[in-house]
Specification:
six-stranded antiparallel β-sheet, 3 helices, Thiol Ester Dehydrase, Chain A, alpha+beta, globular
Amino acid sequence: MKNTKEEMLEGCRKMCKNTLMETLEIEFIDITEDSVVAKMPVTPRVHQPDGVLHGGASVALAESVGSAGAFIFLNDKNVAIRGIEISANHVKSVKEGYVFATAKIIHKGRTMQLWQIAITNEENQLVSMVKLTTLTLRI
């Protein structure tokens, strides 16, 4: 039996409790057949010293969304997902508001997945482009 979109989003919200995702206030907001979307507020909590979004916070957002996508799309409760490689290009600064991460699967293997995550601002302008490779572990 396949979970509904709302059930999958609720599952993502539950897995964020007491984790870095909760600390960064990452909220999963949409799941489609080929993507997962989350948003994160840009406040002083995620700023670097000069008052703009820290690249590390962007990377944490991207890995969170891509890893959640791998877990959701594999649809197997007996796996754990690990990010094994991530690279990011930051192209625009953000001082406030929200950023949105949209993870799309490029390669969906049983053991390894490749994700492209676009992080945009509220005006849908590209902030960062991230590539994530995940590994599926049987538990």
